[in-house]
């Protein structure tokens, strides 16, 4: 059996199997579950991960308990990265199967499919991107936003973004209300400047943490830094979108307790669970700052270049008819 390892004013870190923790909660008592379980990766990680062929059976007990404890108007946000099939440049479908299972077997609704884009990711997988050069880099991860009802509580006004330069120009110059060729009827309401722009379902977040209080604490105390942390802004986005102050937020696969740190600063009740004590010891460092837990600093927006930006300057070499099935010897860089 697990135990409460650490407590704050608003929440706690639970050391043990999250199924033990969830089973002790009343049905309908959790307002938001936001988590990122171990992915079904080809290479085994030190924190443990299942094979894609076994993943659905492994995840079913968690799905059952999460549905039971979730409030009727609550949300379940699942960040689950994809994977490649072993030895070939094709993608596994396991994370899509998880989504279908959650909806068809357990009764969840798909409120929206979101995507987390990490602009700082290196070209990956290297074999297909930088060696054989037959795939583009893998830098997004699905984030399934699920709910027990088609109408979970949420407000996009909590997560507004600044207007783009072009939209600000349009608001200044003006736009004639009319029916566009696409069929969209642009009314005069389009010209009203609100508090911000409704964001897309693509969440752009670098994951480049290198000098945080958490890492400093782990280094000073000889503790391992969890290798699979998501940036705090990811759970913060959904905590702001889907919960009110004092609501209960749970991360069953808490790792270094990023979710708990964010929930604490936003005055939500929370619990993070993990089975690895060394990671929990490091997670405690997130709550040791005497000045309180700071908000993440705002950063310069990230942009994606429009396809074709360099097309006219890049010659079209003849494509390999084998599709990169065989490795080709690398050309000398001096050529």
Task: Extract low-pLDDT stretches.
Answer: 290-295
Helix content range: 10-25%
- Could you tell me the radius of gyration in angstroms? 23 Å
Find the structural class using helix and strand composition.
alpha/beta
Order of helices and strands: EEHEHEHEHEHEEEHHEHEH
Which percent range describes the beta-strand content?
Answer: 15-25%
- The protein's oligomeric status is single chain
Principal-axes shape call: globular
Count of strand segments: 11
Task: Please summarize the sheet with the most strands.
Answer: 9 strands, mixed
Tally of alpha and pi helices = 9
Measured between the Cα atoms of the first and last residue, the distance is 63 Å
List keywords for this structure.
single chain; 335 residues; alpha/beta; 9-stranded mixed beta sheet; 9 helices; 11 strands; 24% helix; globular
What does this entry look like structurally?
The protein is an alpha/beta fold and 335 residues long. The chain has nine helices and eleven strands. The protein has helices at residues 18-23, 55-69, 94-104, 126-131, 165-173, 213-220, 233-242, 258-265, 277-283; strands at residues 3-7, 11-15, 30-35, 70-79, 109-117, 140-147, 178-179, 185-186, 202-204, 248-251, 269-274. The strands form two sheets. It has a nine-stranded mixed beta sheet, sandwiched between helices. The longest helix is centred in the N-terminal third of the chain and has 15 residues, at 55-69. The relative contact order is 0.17. Residues 290-295 have low confidence and may be disordered.
């Amino acid at each position: 059996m697990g135990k409460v390892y650490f407590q704050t004013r608003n929440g706690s870190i639970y050391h043990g199997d999250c199924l033990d923790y969830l089973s002790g909660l009343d049905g309908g008592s959790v307002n938001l579950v936001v988590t990122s379980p171990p992915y079904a990766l080809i290479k085994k990680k030190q924190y443990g991960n299942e094979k894609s062929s076994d993943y659905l059976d492994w995840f079913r007990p968690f799905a059952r308990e999460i549905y039971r404890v979730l409030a009727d108007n609550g949300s379940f946000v699942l960040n689950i990265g994809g994977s490649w099939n072993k030895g070939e440049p094709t993608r596994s479908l396991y994370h899509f199967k998880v989504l279908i299972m959650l909806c068809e077997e357990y009764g969840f609704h798909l409120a929206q499919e979101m995507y987390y884009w990490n602009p700082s990711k290196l070209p990956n997988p290297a074999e297909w991107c930088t060696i054989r050069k037959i795939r583009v880099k893998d830098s997004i991860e699905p984030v399934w936003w699920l709910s027990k009802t088609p109408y979970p509580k949420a407000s996009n006004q909590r997560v507004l973004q600044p207007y783009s330069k072009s939209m600000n120009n349009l608001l200044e110059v003006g736009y004639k209300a009319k029916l566009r060729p696409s069929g969209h009827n642009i009314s005069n309401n389009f010209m009203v400047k609100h508090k911000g722009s409704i964001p897309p379902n693509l969440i752009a977040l670098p994951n480049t943490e290198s000098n945080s209080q958490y890492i400093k604490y782990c280094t000073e105390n000889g503790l391992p830094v969890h290798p699979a942390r998501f940036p705090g802004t990811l759970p913060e986005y959904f905590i702001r979108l889907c919960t009110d102050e004092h609501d209960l937020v749970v991360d069953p696969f808490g790792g270094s307790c990023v979710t708990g740190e964010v929930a604490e600063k936003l005055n939500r009740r929370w619990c993070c669970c993990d089975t690895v004590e060394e990671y929990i010891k490091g997670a405690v460092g997130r709550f040791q700052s005497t000045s309180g837990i700071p908000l993440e600093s705002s950063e310069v927006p990230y942009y994606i270049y429009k396809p074709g930006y360099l097309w006219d300057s890049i010659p079209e070499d003849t494509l390999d008819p084998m599709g990169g099935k065989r490795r080709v010897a690398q050309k000398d860089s001096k050529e």
